[in-house]
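User: I'm putting together a small comparison set for a docking exercise, and I want a reference complex before I start. The sequence is below, and the ligand is magnesium ion. Could you produce the 3D structure with the ligand included, as structure tokens?
Assistant: Of course. I'll restate your input first, then give the structure tokens for the complex.
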Amino acid sequence: MAEIDFITHYDSRSPVAEAYRAIRTNLQFSGAGKTLKTIVFTSAIPNEGKSTTVANLAITIGQDDKKILLIDCDMHKPVIHRRFSLLNRGLSNCFAEDLPLKEVIQADVFPNLDIVTSGPIPPNPAELLGSKKMKALLQEAAEMYDYVFLDMPPVLAVTDAVLMSSQT
Ligand SMILES: Nc1ncnc2c1ncn2[C@@H]1O[C@H](COP(=O)(O)OP(=O)(O)O)[C@@H](O)[C@H]1O
Ligand SMILES: [Mg+2]
């Protein structure tokens, strides 16, 4: 595990952790009147720090006593289960076994932070993310949590993140 992966937890007094708190505060004000709840995290290409950013920001929000769910929607190269050392039974299992989201939520991985891992890599991630079932899963999540963060693949590689931003 790289030091940066969970810096907001292990070094919450560091300047990096302070920067994440600034983002947390900005998020609270960026909904322009509406509560911003479900947020897609993406960037142009791989290895730019998406998963690291979403993990640390999620931890920071949990530290502020907000209930947060992080869903690994990168069903091409998922990393969240490895980073957090979790069982990889998650999102794709909801589709394969027709389960509700709550069956695959791993609770309190960090304070107030619950996680849904990607599950086994499916052959058709974009179709799953664009489906009615996905919309229902997101709705279920939005009812249970203050924030729902979606870790996505890069936009220049696959269409998933763009598709997802229209689902939320
Ligand atoms: N700010 C940073 N400084 C140094 N290394 C970083 C930083 N952010 C991420 N990394 C490292 O870069 C690699 C890719 O980061 P990751 O968050 O998985 O990128 P992405 O999700 O965009 O593919 C990881 O090994 C991670 O530990
Ligand atoms: Mg990633």
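The mean pLDDT is 94. Residues 155 and 162 are 7 Å apart (CA to CA).
User: Thanks, that's exactly what I needed.
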